[in-house]
Structures are given as structure tokens and as C-alpha cells.
Q: What sequence folds into this?
């Protein structure tokens, strides 16, 4: 149940950089929120 393997997270970080250049701040905040949720899932996966 690994929703965000390292190679996917690298793509997400790259996508975040592209979004910060091309999209409006609210959408960037939404993306960072999704990335934060992904991080929480990773923490839960490691903890349990």
C-alpha cells in the first residue's frame, strides 16, 4: 500500500516546480496540500 514511492515523489516535486511557475497560487497550495497528505500516508505506513 505504498501510495507515493520515491520515484513518484520526485516526479511530484518536479511537477510542483512547474506548477509554481505556470499556475496561480491557490492551485499551488492545493497541490502542496495533496503532497502533504501523501507524506502523512507515508508516515502512517512506516509507523504501522
A:
Amino acid at each position: 500500500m505504498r501510495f507515493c514511492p520515491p520515484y513518484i515523489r520526485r516526479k511530484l516535486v518536479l511537477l510542483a516546480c512547474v506548477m509554481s511557475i505556470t499556475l496561480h497560487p491557490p492551485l499551488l497550495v492545493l497541490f502542496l496540500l495533496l503532497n502533504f497528505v501523501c507524506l502523512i500516508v507515508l508516515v502512517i505506513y512506516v509507523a504501522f
Remarks:
- Residues 6-38 form one domain.
- Helices lie at 6-22, 25-47.
- Residues 4 and 38 are 6 Å apart (CA to CA).
- The mean pLDDT is 72.
